[in-house]
Design a protein that fits this description.
Rossmann fold; 494 residues; 6-stranded parallel β-sheet; Arc Repressor Mutant, subunit A
């Protein structure tokens, strides 16, 4: 069979997606390859197809057991001989797979990166006719990527031990600096570099300041996605279970998923979600990498992710079937404080400052009034036109845009006049002239700033508060109390 016949016979497609054929041809010509293609762009086919047209075995290095398992099951269902070797298998099963490899009965072998540091396994590979290696989730190779893994760094040994065997590396997210780092660390020789556009035209991206715990905003969003599949990301294991329970009380079929759950329960939740028996999975980032489910219609983040790479990869799990999908990011100043605390706990290395820089990029994205798609593309060194109608910023009426200068002074003055003793939500209550008992009891209804900010919504004031935090005009003290910095005092003075 030729390329197109193989494409139709095994994968059910009559034509290639953009850039796929270019990579397939490069692999068939035994070139090293580095491909950056957004989630849902069809990276897996780029290496699964050419091995069917070549002699020998393809070894695929992948970071997650669940991801490997799903790929192997899907390949077998398509009539392609595939297997995985993992620490979860007993000796008998491993030996059976090794015998199949020696007999040439397997075309694709999936392994975790740490297996390639095993002397016995390397010796086995030297006895096999390997046509090329695949490094999936290749951003894990780079210290400057968002998910650096030490075991991936050791993959440099592949070129040392198999100098004439091509390597094809794939990732959905890499800046040009990370791309160069991947190529260098893997020792790729004049690789064919293929980079797809980052614009997901079927994805609508929204970001809002979270009000309280965000659950009211979440329910408003879910009304637009009744009975549709979705993923909700939270920061902690505890919050996944709390949000899942909350949704269950609202009659929504939702399950929690995090690394602390028993393997059997995680596998059951995953299988139920893929089979549409569960509508929503509430998860930490432990869920979703390589998930084989194309009809996810929405992704919600209940808190701000630590990097734009994480965010882009996670929202990319929606709409992989090419149909319309929507994402919602809910965030607050408290998220920023929490993420900075996580980074502060890291060892004093160059990576620590790098982590702060990545968080700053995420903060700027969340607070930006520019096109969301354009902002993401710019971060990854790409240029695209504004989306016009695929993000909240491009569709926001002009009336919702705020002159932050005057409003900023109002907010800073209110923080000052309430003695810098309160959190942002309370300060906004004073600005908006709230009749809350606490405001009246403190006598803050008598202040000159009381009620002067009623023209803006609470969400808009939260946006301004976060902007001031980002600019360094305010800082958050103990008990989430907002205080002015020296710069904040200067802003009030004009």
């Amino acid at each position: 069979m030729n390329k197109l016949e193989t494409l139709e016979h095994y994968f059910g497609h009559s034509s290639f997606r953009p850039l796929q054929e270019e990579v397939v041809d490069a692999i068939l010509e035994k070139q090293d390859v580095l491909m950056i293609l957004p989630t849902g762009g069809g990276k897996s086919l780029c290496y699964q197809l050419p091995t069917l047209l070549m002699e020998g075995i393809t070894v695929v290095v992948s970071p997650l057991l669940a991801l490997m398992h799903d790929q192997v099951v899907a390949l077998k269902a398509n009539g392609i001989s595939a297997a995985m070797l993992s620490s979860m298998q007993d000796m008998e099963e491993s030996q059976q797979i090794e015998e199949q490899l020696r007999r040439g009965e397997i075309k694709l072998l999936y392994v975790a990166p740490e297996r390639l540091t095993n002397g016995y396994f390397l010796n086995l590979l030297h006895q096999l006719p390997i046509n090329f290696f695949v490094i999936d989730e290749a951003h894990c190779v780079s210290e400057w990527g968002h998910e650096f893994r030490e075991n991936y760094r050791r993959l440099s040994l592949l070129k040392e031990q198999f100098s004439t065997t091509p390597i094809a590396a794939f990732t959905a997210t890499a800046t040009h600096a990370v791309e160069s780092d991947i190529a260098s660390n893997l020792g790729l020789v004049n690789p064919k570099r293929v980079r797809g556009s980052l614009f997901r035209e079927n994805l609508t991206i929204n970001a809002k300041h979270r009000i309280k715990d965000g659950r009211a905003q979440l329910m408003e969003f879910l009304k637009l996605h009744t009975d549709e599949s979705g993923i909700i990301y939270t920061l902690s294991r505890k919050s996944t279970e709390a949000v899942a329970h909350f949704l269950q009380t609202k009659g929504i079929e939702a399950k929690a998923y995090h690394a602390g759950l028993p393997t059997e329960e995680k596998n059951r939740t995953y299988a139920d979600f893929v089979a549409d028996r569960v509508q929503i999975v509430v998860a930490t980032i432990a869920f979703g990498m390589g998930i084989d489910k194309s009809n996810i219609r929405f992704v919600v983040h209940m808190t701000m992710p630590k990097t734009l790479e994480n965010f882009y990869q996670e929202i990319g799990r929606a709409g992989r079937d090419g149909l319309e999908a929507e994402t919602l990011l809910l965030f607050s100043a408290q998220d920023i404080v929490q993420q900075k605390m996580f980074i502060e706990d890291l060892p004093e290395t160059p990576y620590k400052q790098h982590a702060f820089n990545k968080l700053d990029s995420m903060i700027r994205f969340a607070n930006s009034e520019n096109c969301r798609h354009q902002s993401i593309a710019a971060y990854f060194d790409d240029r695209i036109e504004a989306c016009i109608d695929k993000c909240d910023n491009c569709t926001a009426p002009a009336s919702e845009k705020i002159d932050i200068t005057t409003a900023a002074r109002m907010l800073l003055s209110t923080i000052l006049r309430t003695q810098q003793n309160f959190g942002l939500h309370y300060v906004i209550d004073v600005l908006k002239g709230s009749k809350e008992q606490r405001v009246l009891a403190n006598g803050h209804d008598t202040l000159s700033v009381y009620g002067i900010g009623d023209e803006y919504s609470k969400s808009q004031w939260l946006t301004i508060g976060d902007k001031l935090l980002e600019l360094g005009a305010v800082e958050i003290g103990e008990f989430k109390v907002y205080k002015l910095t020296a710069f904040g005092v200067e802003v009030i003075k004009g």
